[in-house]
Design a protein that fits this description.
about 100 residues, about 5% helix, three-stranded antiparallel β-sheet, mainly beta, elongated
Length: about 100
């Protein structure tokens, strides 16, 4: 177990979480208004930050993937990202990163 201090200064609650914890997963996606892709994320630690990385070249080294968005997991360990769809791109890949 380990301490989770992410909301301590906000709500005064010190949380205990498993260590190691399961990695978060992309558990769904949907197209919104044909112009935005909504990516749903689950299994994160409550209130922890989560980063969305992206590339158009899956074989590119991880160091060259772009950080495109930051969010925080909610109290249930869920988060979502909304990204504009570029119709000129034939493909785009996404990856999650947590501290």
């Amino acid at each position: 177990l380990k301490w989770n201090l992410n909301r301590l200064s906000v709500d005064g609650v010190l949380r205990v979480v498993p260590d190691p914890s399961l990695p978060p997963v992309i558990n769904g996606s949907s197209v919104l208004d044909a112009t935005n892709l909504v990516i749903s994320v689950a299994q994160g630690l409550a209130y922890d930050p989560v980063y969305l990385l992206s590339t158009t070249n899956f074989a590119a080294p991880l160091s060259s993937w772009d950080f495109i968005a930051t969010n925080r997991f909610d109290s249930y360990g869920n988060a979502s990202f909304t990204n504009a769809i570029n119709p000129d791109e034939p493909e785009r890949y996404f990856l999650l990163s947590v501290p």
